[in-house]
Design brief:
The protein has 4 domains: 10-143, Immunoglobulin-like, CATH 2.60.40.2060; 150-256, Immunoglobulin-like; 261-386, Immunoglobulin-like, CATH 2.60.40; 399-623, no CATH class. The longest helix is centred in the last third of the chain and has 32 residues, at 593-624. It is α+β, with helices and mostly antiparallel strands. The protein is elongated. It contains 11 helices and 38 strands. The two termini are 72 Å apart. Helix 5 (457-476) packs across helix 9.
């Protein structure tokens, strides 16, 4: 007999009622799409049948088909349940839901043997559309008498263990019931036991037999006892059917559960504070989210990892990287680790044409394991992939910059020795402004010695100084000194010859505006056009550099031996014709100490001037190729983002001051320009990614 209770019927003492509440005894709940749901499931086995009571909640007021299924392996698999008085395992109910009671003929479906691993599943199906609602499941129950399961012979791992640890055991049960597992662990040799967690990849239901069945259980040790080490760890495994059975216990073994880390997954080397992984505080004082924009081809993703303090070494071959979007031939979720190559302390992937990213938002997720099997927590990185085009790529065209050291806009002179005073007046005087500035620091001479003049000391010094400046400029943009290796932007080059160049900037002379600005250049968003920064209002103002720093300790330390009135200008010292000659070898055995000292004085000044001027040049050229566009990515490069947590004092419109000596801060220091290596001036990681065209600016 099929018994169905509804809002108008009372059966077995149960009064039907509309609507539904929360779940109990394994019941379901209403889903977010407001489909029909099953809840409040109760079973009552008796003889050869089981009474099942459940509630249907139907917010859409649609007629439903109710399907009932049974499992005799704790929900591992299901078959259609035989319902009394009904030819199939499903029946219709009218709109509105209610509380219902049915009889499952378990004797027909599973026979008469005792069994302790049963589950019933009830599924609502919308009659008009066939859409599945939220299923409900009963707790595990049994029919007939029950024998408790027993665990025998739990294995003991050898060596140091970590991560998810496997155990082999034998589980026997007189009724061959499928069983669940209660896993416990002890870090003190079995004195205190703590509840353990099965690893996500572990089975949760295990078959048994009266003779015993071999089972493998995976303990998620790194989650249960992180940052723990114990040489007397033990695991206890208790099988459960209707009740907990007899446990088995391993012998003592050693765990070392210090987890490695994915320190960063990012674009290039951009830190999390600037790559969209973390919000920044905007001008309104509100945390704001943002994201980077990458081309579909050519961007470099990098992953940095580290072992835990006191932990095992990271296993680079264990890297796992997944993307939530399809790549060509690589469906979403495919492991992309083989695309990453080790280099420079990181694992890097430069996206090739055959791996072109799909247009739109995408997320990479990475994990890695150490030699003991401990896994890092997953780390995510989300970007927007954008089609590459000339309008998006700032260096799709060859932008060759002429460094103009020959401009003559001012008349410049200096006086004094203890305190240098520099004066300038707007108006050409036939002498390049840069030459007049070099005379003040002693790298040019108004009256060189005849022997020095004979070797062309002034021209030679001018060549050495300008080559030093352009070489250091190439280095700041990521290339090598001689220009043989391209910089960050391969189509961005620098030349001392105007022939064939596209853009220009003058070097030398003063600023037409009062103050101590070291340079000024036109701003060009995304480097859309060539730029000419050669007027008296634009360029690099080396006169101001001398006015501001000329009497400082570090400036005098580099130039004091050459500055007029303090030292001897280049070309006026008796040793200059010798040490400036191309044939002079600083390392030659026959040199005198005086010769080497004079050579060193000259080159200390040349290098200092080259480093100081190149830093200003890099900053001003940076403006004319798009640094630093205001606002957050993808439309900006954090120019003017004064409220951002990483923004320093010298953040102003079109400038960003980030940790370290950032070339695009609003103030530059001559002393800092002399620092060599990573501590010296450099483009921050976001600006470098822009120069490399790994990050594209929006409109």
């Amino acid at each position: 007999m099929l018994l169905i209770g509804s809002t108008a019927t009372t059966l077995l003492g149960l009064t039907g009622c509309g609507g539904g509440g929360g779940s109990s005894s394994g019941g379901g709940s209403i889903s977010v799409d407001q489909s029909a749901a099953i809840s409040d499931l109760v079973v009552n086995p008796s003889g050869s049948s089981t009474t099942l009571q459940f509630t249907v909640t139907d917010p859409n007021q649609k007629a439903q088909l109710i399907e009932v299924e049974f499992s005799e392996n704790r929900g591992g698999s299901y078959g259609p349940a035989t319902l009394q008085g009904q030819p199939t395992n499903s029946f219709s109910i009218p709109p509105g839901g209610g509380t219902f009671v049915v009889e499952w003929s378990h004797g027909v479906d599973i026979g008469g043997d005792p069994q302790g691993d049963l589950v019933l599943r009830v599924t609502p199906i919308e009659a008009s559309s066939g859409a599945l609602g939220d299923r409900g499941h009963t707790p595990v129950f049994g029919v007939g008498g029950n024998t408790s399961p027993v665990t025998d012979a739990v294995s003991t791992p050898t060596g140091i263990q970590g991560g998810s640890i496997p155990f082999t055991c034998f589980i026997r049960d007189g009724q061959s019931d499928a069983v669940g597992i209660l896993l416990e662990y002890s870090l003190d040799g079995g004195i205190q036991w703590l509840p353990g967690t099965l690893a996500a990849e572990s089975a949760t239901t295990f078959p048994t037999s009266p003779e015993g069945t071999e089972c493998e259980v995976l303990w998620d040790a790194e989650s249960d006892a992180p940052n723990t080490s114990s040489a007397v760890t033990r695991v206890r495994i208790t099988p459960v059917d209707l009740v907990a059975g007899s446990p088995g216990v391993s012998d003592a073994f050693q765990v070392h559960l210090y987890r490695p880390a994915i320190d960063s997954i990012t674009l290039g080397a951009i830190p999390g504070s600037m790559n969209g992984s973390l919000p920044y505080t905007n001008s309104n004082g509100v945390p704001a989210t943002f994201h980077l924009r990458v081309p579909t081809v050519g961007a470099e993703f990098s992953i940095e990892t580290s072992a835990a303090t006191g932990g095992a070494a990271v296993d680079p071959s264990s890297l796992l990287v997944r993307c939530d979007q399809d790549l060509p031939g690589l469906p979403a979720g495919t492991d992309l680790a083989s695309l990453f190559e080790a280099g420079g302390g990181a694992l890097r992937w430069t996206v090739a044409e055959e791996q072109a990213l799909p247009v739109g938002m995408l997320t990479l997720t990475a994990r890695i394991w150490d030699d003991y099997g401990n896994s890092s927590p997953p780390k995510e990185f989300t970007v927007e992939a954008h089609p590459g085009s000339a309008s998006n790529h700032p260096f799709d065209w060859e932008d060759s910059w002429y460094l103009d050291f020959h401009a003559d806009h001012f008349t410049i002179a200096a006086s004094g020795s203890t305190n240098i005073e520099v004066g300038s007046a707007l108006g050409a005087n036939g002498i390049p402004d840069f030459i007049e500035d070099l005379r003040i620091v002693g790298l040019q001479s108004v009256s060189p010695l005849p022997a020095a003049e004979a070797i062309g000391s002034n021209a030679l010094l001018h060549e050495l100084v300008t080559e030093e400046i352009v070489g250091r400029l190439r280095e700041l943009f990521g290339g090598d000194f001689d220009g043989g290796t391209p910089g960050f932007a391969q189509n961005l080059t620098f030349s001392l010859d105007p022939a064939g160049t596209t853009s220009s900037i003058r070097v030398g002379g003063d600023d037409v505006n009062p103050g101590f600005a070291l340079g000024r250049a036109a701003f060009d968003h995304r480097n859309a056009t060539a730029n000419q920064n050669a007027t008296e209002a634009l360029g690099v103002f080396t006169t101001n550099l001398i006015e501001f720093y000329g009497n400082s300790f570090y400036f005098r330390q580099r130039f004091g031996a050459l500055m007029p009135g303090i030292g001897t200008p280049a070309g006026e010292h008796a040793l200059d014709p010798i040490v400036l000659a191309p044939s002079f070898d600083r390392l030659a055995y026959g040199n005198t100490a005086a010769q080497n000292d004079r050579y060193d004085d000259l080159w200390v000044a040349i290098e200092a001037w080259g480093r100081g001027v190149s830093v200003i040049l890099a900053h001003e050229i940076g403006h004319s190729i798009g640094l630093c566009t205001n606002g957050a990515p993808p439309s900006g490069l954090f120019g003017g983002a004064t409220s951002a947590e990483f923004a320093g004092t010298y953040t102003t419109p079109y400038h960003i001051d980030t940790p370290g000596n950032n070339l695009m801060a609003a103030a530059l220091s001559f002393t800092s320009a002399l620092v060599v290596g990573y501590g010296g001036y450099r483009f921050n990681e976001l600006n470098e990614a822009y120069l490399r065209q790994w990050h594209l600016l929006g409109n």
